[in-house]
Amino acid sequence: MNRVKSLFVFNIVFFFTLSNSINALEVIRDTELEDFTNDIIEMLLVENNMEAEDINIYFINSKQINAFVTGGKNIFINTEIIIQAKDYREYAAVIAHELAHILGGHIFRTSEEISNISDKAMPIYLLGIIGLITGATDAGFAGVMVGQAAVADTFTYYSRTQEASADQKAVSMLCNSMIDASYLASFLENLESSSPNVKTKVENYRSTHPLPQDRIAWIELALSKNKGCDFQIDKELEKRFDLLKAKLFGFTHTYEETKAVYNSDETQDLYANAVSSYLNGDHKQSTENLKKLIKTDNKNPFFKELIGEIYFVSQNYDEAIYFQNNAINNLNKNNDIYMMMLGNYLLSTEEKEKVERSINYLKQSIQLNSQNAYSWYLLAKAYAYLDNISFANYATAERYFLIGEKNLSYDFASKAMVNIEKNTPEWYRTYDLIEILKKEVATNKN
Questions:
Q1: H helices of 280-424, where?
Q2: Which candidate among 131, 237, 327, 333 keeps its CA 20 to 30 Å from the CA of 411?
Q3: Are strands 56-60 and 7-10 parallel, antiparallel or unpaired?
Q4: Residues 6 or more apart in contact with residue 161 via CB below 8 angstroms
Q5: What is the C-alpha separation between 184 and 220, in angstroms, rounded?
Q6: Distance between CA atoms of residues 202 and 208, nearest Å
């Protein structure tokens, strides 16, 4: 029986379009990207009454240069921002500016508010893991997995007062974090001097922010008030940024473009081409590059995660499990995506002992991020494989609840309650789900 192997998983290869609209957002997740960005945010918030955990960051797969905030504490960053930034200080400057809008209480809404982002939208695991699912049932899951994140491409403008305030606050935050704040102006100057081809990508940034020349004047005024902000580059952060930038370039640009830009034997070039070769179907070249990288830096979890993904795609599950285990051991902290991936690799073997182990990792993934609907999906499959149908129904109920399918959630929770052992955590949670959903489901049926 090949019920699990029909789940064909690529690391950064495929994505589901969030709507048929050309204006839809393609929200992605990647551990390397999230870790680096969270580290920058922690630095920037060091003297502010807010924690990095309070900020919701969403990354968008887009070649348009843009970053914006919506109501609450949500920051959206296009991947092209990172690719166009000259170094980590320009990227940090963009983040500081958006954080300043949040800290200043500025609310920037799209013309169509992003609906229920925290309740219904399922982030697409484009840069960590994504399932290309076949079959009618699984295809249905793929359809609901994309969430409700489509938005129009027109935005209201920040007021000049808010924008000037955000730039001045950003300069202060950067200086307090020992990051040279002149790189905020540097980033804007780079946008202005971009080639004609790149300028078309800048239109979105200009639609959500005032003209760069106006902002540069505000930034220079703020810099004059923050003396001694010309801090030296942090070489470790720059090394991490160069690798992240190379990785994103390889995944968001063509094979030919990647080969043209990253054409040496430097670490970041090998990484970019490992990614690009993988997407181009040349797993042999990608694996060779990654083995060189691992030999150079055996502690880098992201090299190991990617080579494990390639082995998984090749159905070499033992190697995939080995490298994913190593990747988890090399991470600074536990991560829900990595636990989910290892759980999926173990589940794909269809060996009872390994499927049992997969449940442990999938539960860890959910403990780290209870909103990870894909982990709930895999957990349901694992329970079903072991013929624990009541727990499979429970996990399915949780997954449907997360993605907003309340009727289906209620139906599966009701099925789970028939045979699930009383007074277990799963029993209490299933009972809670039923109680939460009773009125809503009854209303819908009427």
A1: 283-296, 301-313, 317-330, 336-348, 352-368, 373-385, 389-402, 406-419
A2: 131
A3: unpaired
A4: none
A5: 10
A6: 10
- 42-68 per-position pLDDT tens digit: 999 988 888 888 898 989 888 888 888
Residue 57 gets which letter from DSSP?
Answer: E
Q: How far apart are CA 147 and CA 124, in angstroms?
A: 9
* Backbone φ, ψ for residue 292 (5° rounding): -65, -45
pLDDT band at 263 (very low <50, low <70, confident <90, very high): very high
Instruction: Average the pLDDT over 386-412 and give the result.
Output: 94
Max CA separation in the chain (angstroms):
70
- pLDDT confidence of residue 315: 94
Judged against a pLDDT cut of 60, whether residue 426 lies above it is answered with yes
Between these two residues, 124 and 80, which has the higher pLDDT value?
A: 80
> How far is the C-alpha of 436 from the C-alpha of 430, rounded, in Å?
10
Q: Is 1.10.10.350 the CATH number for 254-445?
A: no
Whole-number Å distance between alpha carbons of 102 and 118: 17
What is d(CA 345, CA 333) in angstroms, rounded to the nearest whole number? 20
Q: For the chain, give every domain's residue range.
A: 7-225, 254-445
